[in-house]
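Sample entry was shown:

___
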Amino acid sequence: MDPAAKLGPLSAAGTLNTGTGGVPDSSSSAPTSHGKAGGAQPLRVTAPTTTVVTHPTPTTTVTTVTQTIVKPAATTIVTTVTTTTVRPATPVNAITHPTVPAPTTTTTTVKTTTVTTPAPAAAATPTASSNGAIPTAPASLGAPTSMVLDEEFNTGSLNTKLWSPDWWGSGQVSNGTVMLSSNVSEGANGLALQLNSPQSGGLVSTNPNDDQPGHTGFQIAPTAGKPVFVEYKATLPSTASGGVANWPALWLVGQPPWPQNGEIDVMEGGYGSAAYHIHFGNQDGEGADGPGAQVNITGGTHTFGVYWTTTSVTFLYDGAVVGTIDQDLDSPMFIVMENSYSSVDPTVFPTTLDVRYVRVWN
């Protein structure tokens, strides 16, 4: 309703009817307040100013902003929801009130969601290697790529849980040489096996059955569809002319009886060069060499590998295949590395066989 209607009809400007209430009328000669000299000014009453306030229909505005923050180990999703509501003010009935602005209510809600993703697993990369986790065997061989042993010889001391620094106990004889644990050490060039004389050589073994205190060892065998690849990187002792000195050897051998449970000679120094062989079955291992061949390489640093399946043994020198022998060998074998003396080889004293790493894939 129009607020002015509540006042009733208003008269036009005119004089007040005083009646008999003692208030002078317009004919009185007495002065009136606020009048000009010489005449009375009548009091005028007019309708007051009115304001009609009209408010809009309430409205609501919702604004949603989602931000995704990606970090290496976690993803954070921040969602900001802003709600703005406009409502009408309380109706204004008082005639003289000014227009009242409509109030605005703003509500802000922030929702943060963090999704944690595990960091990628570290790759099975050897600690001190340029070859990574893949053997240097040609891919055509189908060599396995799952590493099961990685010995880098870079800690400064021999891991005697894995390796025994002797042959069934210090002072035992292997290949005609007395093997002493004092000739085994780790240094800047990896594992060092010293040969000082026929009575003072160096050897390490992973034989789990050698009865050495605290020694767990390691042995392995192929199974159908799961070949084994073993790779050594070693610096062979050299003669003055650059040939291979003495009788260094990198090999695998099964548990007794020997040779029934097999032997794989990945590299044997002999006659100034290197050779590979296998021994197996009921051979007269004491006097006969198994099948194999000489490989014309010099002393110095090389890689020597063997790809071993249940039906054949393939040898690789510096990543290239040098020979394959078809033979069933599937008994578990352990690792042996040694620096020995032999009277038929070029002899140099003292010498060191340095082994940079031994890695096994299965």
About this structure: The first strand starts at residue 59 and ends at 70.
